[in-house]
Batch of 2 targets.
Target 1
Amino acid sequence: MQTTLPSYAVLSGGVGGAKLVLGLQRILLSGQLQVIANTGDDFEHLGLTICPDIDTLMYTLAGIAHPDNGWGLQNESWQFMAGMKKLGGETWFRLGDGDLATHVRRQQLLASGLGLSEVTAELSRALDVAVTICPMSDEPVRTIIETDEGALAFQDYFVRRKTEPAASAFHYSGSDQASASNAALAALENAASGAIIITPSNPWLSIDPIMSLSDIKNAINASPAPVIGISPIVGGRALKGPTAKLMGELGIEPSVLNIARHYRDVVDGLIIDNQDADQQNAIEAMGLTVKVCNTMMMNLSDKIKLAEDTVSFAASLRADKTT
Amino acid sequence: MQTTLPSYAVLSGGVGGAKLVLGLQRILLSGQLQVIANTGDDFEHLGLTICPDIDTLMYTLAGIAHPDNGWGLQNESWQFMAGMKKLGGETWFRLGDGDLATHVRRQQLLASGLGLSEVTAELSRALDVAVTICPMSDEPVRTIIETDEGALAFQDYFVRRKTEPAASAFHYSGSDQASASNAALAALENAASGAIIITPSNPWLSIDPIMSLSDIKNAINASPAPVIGISPIVGGRALKGPTAKLMGELGIEPSVLNIARHYRDVVDGLIIDNQDADQQNAIEAMGLTVKVCNTMMMNLSDKIKLAEDTVSFAASLRADKTT
């Protein structure tokens, strides 16, 4: 008889990760779900600390995210940007009027001495987000992309240059000095009863920055919980974002097999899409357990279904471990 | 034969001062007009340095000021405020979405190491404001109001408490350490050829903070130029703002005579409204030259007319001085 409900620690970037987290939110009690958010995309802009993945998670879970953009708020207005343009300020990174409240409030709370975890908890509370969103670290870690145009900070690469330069390598500046946040480490510890889930976010740009923190990587390796990945590659393509393009530039064929190779030292099980069922055996030959199901989250029921499949996969892996 | 056009240094607060400055802008070439702006109302809010009087001047001269409010922009939207309210942030000081661009851009330029004078010049340039707006100081001077509810910072008194507490005294915190800006001192020096004009802004809340800087006061006293005041009191009332209420609380009957007493050590001439013509003799008995005309600036022609009257009054005072 199980006396406490299993707890899940979910590693997530922005859009793709947030979709699965939304599905998980619908089937779990709030105390069961902790999200460890990538902060490698964070940057300082116009004097404000911008945390794109945290915001996408908060806005998605609060039900106020823009339905299509993958960033920002629904029903947004752009007077601030128009003013900034007139004043000769930078406008390549679009900040909506309502969204700006988040950044200004965050900056104010950070300046008051709170850490990013506390600030995120405060903003989440105000937005009625019951799920705990844990920044991977309260200290700055910044994803740098080596490209044919030189080293680019994440947002320079992703937004300003629209991922056009060819990437050759990534590093996560500050990750050797930074500690994981206490909240993230607590989430991983709590997950002993459930699972550690790696969402189908971009492995290099969203998940590896989190794993670049040695105390997070060590906690995952030491955890008794099954670690489950969901492939962001389906049928040789990325559903959204530059994952497939990036893999090509790195000389890695975009395939679930290569996603499995990337995660094989970390995960116990990998969820792949029905379209890739023919690669199940090859991945199992690497020593991973594979679950095949629909991973394409086109609507809310898809998200809930994938969340259910993930949680049941976790339960079966836990059962395997204990038998 | 006059080889250079006369130059005017204009001491100004927000609304009332900006009206006269707008009139002066229409009749002078841009090189002839320098405004020394009160920064005693400035404050730090939501991590931003807000300069209400500078902004009212800039927006008025750029033709983008809100037509009625006396602050902020026309055609403004309020998504940021709505977001801030939702996030539990402070909303008592209203910052429109477009207006916010000014504050964020200013903060960014200040953080880059520029002084407030340079930042104001940069913002003015971007808004096509040809008139030079000189902050009285690049260093913080903050107007404090002693009231029956204790000492209040200016915006707490003026906006949050809507000038309801009874004022008993004012001081200008930081004025003993702060230096006048080089731009303000240059404006006063240039004005030797024209005049120093004290706009009909609130004497205690808008003009005295400027005069509290000893190098500004000394430069005005030492200037060969005539110094002209325009009474903010007309027929015993203030046209806008708390001037009359304040005078009552200070135990000073609101009258042009008492405005003359307040300014008598500083000005050579005082402009009073037609309604107060009966007090001309009493003011002249104090040793001041008086000009009586319409000072009520209800529309653009009023502003231009008062500007013309002020400039011709200055010319007559200059002629008196040299004969």
Note: Chain A has a mean pLDDT of 95.
Target 2
Amino acid sequence: MYKISLITGDGIGPELSDSAVSVLETIHDKLDLKFGITKLSAGDKALEQTGKALPDDTVSAIKQSDACMKAPVGESAADVIVVLRRMLDLYANIRPAKSYPHMPALRDDIDMVIVRENTEDLYTGKEFSLGDSSVALRIISEQASKRIAKYAFETAKMRNDKKKVTCVHKSNVMRVTDGMFAKACTEVSKDYPDISFEQMYVDACAMNLIRQPQEFDVVVTTNLFGDILSDESSQVVGGLGMAPAANIGDNFALFEPVHGAAFDIAGQNIANPSSFLLSIKMMLDWLGTKNSDSKCFEVGQKLESTIFNLVKTGVKTKDIGGDKTTSEFTKQITDNL
Amino acid sequence: MYKISLITGDGIGPELSDSAVSVLETIHDKLDLKFGITKLSAGDKALEQTGKALPDDTVSAIKQSDACMKAPVGESAADVIVVLRRMLDLYANIRPAKSYPHMPALRDDIDMVIVRENTEDLYTGKEFSLGDSSVALRIISEQASKRIAKYAFETAKMRNDKKKVTCVHKSNVMRVTDGMFAKACTEVSKDYPDISFEQMYVDACAMNLIRQPQEFDVVVTTNLFGDILSDESSQVVGGLGMAPAANIGDNFALFEPVHGAAFDIAGQNIANPSSFLLSIKMMLDWLGTKNSDSKCFEVGQKLESTIFNLVKTGVKTKDIGGDKTTSEFTKQITDNL
Ligand SMILES: CC(C)[C@H](C(=O)O)[C@@H](O)C(=O)O
Ligand SMILES: CC(C)[C@H](C(=O)O)[C@@H](O)C(=O)O
């Protein structure tokens, strides 16, 4: 049995969490892959109720689980997710972007993944105000850069795809920090002679994601650029409705949708749970690898194809042109699993 | 007579410069707006020949001119343009993105402008290596933030458009520096009650530029985000072929295309000079305002409409689906002026 900790989140978070629980329970009952789920609070509501966006008992429960699922969190998101990423050393943020049938992608042949360094850059919270001026430290280390580069090349190796890693940076302006990042990636690339390696400035990348997204395979980049480029690439393949993310460390991982808490549609039972459910698929793959459990891969595959078959046949939520509610769409999935 | 300094650049730079000179000379001869042009060297070639990407006599010639035109520069671009922006305090980088007929824009109703702070952020070159780690200082000041905010609101006031300013930042992560930027913009917004003001995180903006670009009017942002988002928005309206930029200070201004030196097509007489020629139009508007010279506006208008009428009737360069060479396209413009 896998112990899953589940942060139920704010806004549409609780609805997506209900959907995820129902899918995990169905897998448990019908497909004989066993889960124990612990619901946890973190985010705006937790902050209001306990004074802490990330309560201590939430952290300890996460640490006792095999993997964490995190629904979107509101305004206090940074106090939850940035802290967890660093605390648990979840150094690789993996964000696939793929054109799926019947989604409004810019092209139908996009299949890429952004591998975002998840622990440093401008996300370490080292900022100071000096009267009329302020300064934030952008920290890049060789060790973290090499570690994420290695992850990117391993990812490229496993994909049946273009076998290409694109290192995105702005070393023409940030010669020292992005110089270090680019150099680390270049060095790691030498250990992977079968994978082609290219470098691209972040501004050019923002452009090329629209101009020729089909050319990308694996993109490796620093934290903040990864944040920006992954939101962009999600939209390039048709929006945040189908955009899962994995935060992966050497011993633990946390899965979440790329999108936020969407307060404007919260409580209406219309949110698209697909991004969150596809992050379950990412979790199953990760558990499968970690525990050499082929059952996890099988079930993950089945979950993904169930979602896409439904979307393909027009069974979908409002945001992507359908008429199904969150719970109706979830029920279709559990019925078909 | 207006004294124009012209950095002829690298790659396709010299070809674009020939095109620009021929347009300026035609304006001088046919439309009776007088120019004196001084060609200057800066960039990779200058570095090779003089040991300096930005030679001293180039700088002094620029300072003696009324405005500077800068063709794209190669690998040493940052040593030229970032230095000039800061040295001449050209604090506002203005990058319009507009859908034009017969250009492959994502939609045909996009009309926005990015107002990018041009003197600070991660562009001040303050970077240090500390063994295995490195750090870059991201510097944001209240004074520079207010100055660019004011420029953005003044821009919005003059546009016959949505009268909206969107302030783009990442203050949920960079609370101090982007907190300062957001606060400065919010304060300045109070002086402009007729212009609506909204804030957006940079990742959401990267997404919304594809999802609903028609909603934007004026975007104001910090230096590096402006770099990324303006390349993205150029592509949203169909590519860098028609993307001019103005670097504006209180007393001087420099005009350039958003695109780079494109070494892959250099010397072939196929580059699209439109971005550079449209930056002449931006220069004419700026000279017109500065010198209360209505002739400049008239001529600028004429130049812009000449370019668009040609493109509309299929007279265009290869990059946007035409068959004209750089010089053929330029000749069509000068014939029609
Ligand atoms: C909520 C925010 C701190 C976070 C980030 O910037 O990493 C989010 O945008 C994301 O991409 O997961
Ligand atoms: C060449 C480079 C330093 C420059 C920048 O980043 O500002 C360019 O990309 C631009 O946008 O003008």
Note: Chain A touches chain B through 53 residues (CB under 8 Å).
